[in-house]
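sry for the spam today, last one i promise. struct tokens for design, 265 residues
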């Protein structure tokens, strides 16, 4: 299969509507790919907290409309990164959108682990509650977002739900870039899955982004890695390598679920 990760540059100097149109053009240019991935919160910026409330949109809003049309035009599965979702009956969420090649919005994932500790996303956004996978003709996608990478228990749950390709859009800062690549490789090795991790470039909310989107195979080998700036990272690989790796090195069958109770003496 062929996957294209669009490492989009995000800047306060570009209005969201213009960036939305530019992202749609980049998606349409990926005809021939099987899967296209965009970063986290690219319409507004992952650290542009002051824009989130006013710029939040529903699942049938302008970003969804533009991405549906782009997926349909390119004939690709599109993980359109995430938006600030306005739930009419609740808080705002960091929500990923997955479109089928016919442009239908088939899966959404609300980010479970919110970054910021006592500020930012952790305070103003609601937490997702559902593990989400997306079956496709080339394998089952497991959905996670950015800060989720630091929580291996989520990826174990995605593994148990049948995930073979872990797709992780992000707005990961440059100052922690080494963590980004290390954790992407760790999740690939742990779950014996492909990891497709698509980051933003540029600076938003005053925070420089790491870029360095990365594709990792089930052995932890880096198949492709972007630089720091805007870039479309395209890589071809065989999803059947997941099954081969699990058969050749059957570590997953030795899992012990839970921690044994202490022995009473």
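last one done:
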């Amino acid at each position: 299969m062929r996957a294209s990760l669009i490492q989009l540059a995000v800047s306060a100097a570009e209005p969201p509507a213009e960036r939305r149109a530019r992202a749609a053009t980049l998606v349409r240019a990926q005809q021939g790919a099987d899967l296209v991935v965009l970063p986290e919160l690219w319409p507004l910026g992952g650290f542009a907290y002051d824009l989130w409330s006013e710029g939040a949109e529903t699942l049938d809003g302008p970003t969804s409309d533009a991405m549906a049309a782009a997926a349909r035009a390119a004939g690709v599965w599109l993980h359109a990164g995430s938006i600030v979702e306005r739930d009419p009956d609740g808080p705002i969420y960091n929500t990923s959108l997955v479109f089928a090649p016919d442009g239908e919005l088939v899966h959404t994932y609300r980010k479970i682990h919110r970054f910021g500790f006592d500020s930012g996303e952790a305070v103003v956004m609601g937490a997702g509650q559902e593990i989400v996978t997306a079956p496709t003709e080339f394998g089952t996608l497991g959905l996670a977002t950015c800060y989720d990478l630091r929580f291996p228990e989520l990826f174990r749950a995605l593994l148990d739900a049948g995930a073979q390709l872990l797709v992780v859009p992000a707005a990961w800062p440059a100052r922690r870039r080494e963590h980004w690549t290390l954790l992407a490789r760790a999740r690939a090795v742990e779950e014996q899955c492909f990891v497709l991790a698509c980051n933003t470039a540029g600076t938003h909310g005053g925070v420089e982004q790491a870029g360095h989107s990365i594709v990792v195979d089930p052995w932890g080998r880096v198949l492709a890695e972007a630089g720091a700036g805007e870039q479309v990272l395209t890589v071809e690989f065989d999803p059947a390598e997941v099954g081969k790796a699990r058969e050749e090195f059957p570590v997953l069958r030795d899992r012990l679920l839970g921690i044994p109770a202490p022995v009473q003496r």
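The first helix runs from residue 16 to 28. ok im logging off now
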